[in-house]
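Hi Y.,

Following your request, here is the sequence exactly as I used it, all 106 residues.
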Amino acid sequence: MAKITFIDFSGTARSVEGHVGDSVMEAAIKNSIPGIEAECGGACSCSTCHVYVEEAWKGVTGEPGPMEEDMLDFAFDVRPDSRLSCQIKVTEAMDGLVVNTPERQA
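Below is the corresponding structure, written out as tokens. Let me know if you'd prefer a different format.
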């Protein structure tokens, strides 16, 4: 398990436990995190699980792959630290991960 903190646009933080092997999106959905819609269910075919990964965690979460980069083109307010949470697999090294959600999903 890894503790993941989601910080919404208004600054409200919500911490949940993510199961190793699940995606960050799955942890959000299982815990009813506002701001993560996940309309495609994690198939990387929408951009409604868009998050911003805090700088300190980018090395642990990795960089987006080509398919994810293509989908991010459809996300709202894309930044250099943008990721689709369905593409971030939870590992033990992610215990304490902090991500921010955008003002709205695309």
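The mean pLDDT is 97.

Thanks again,
Q.
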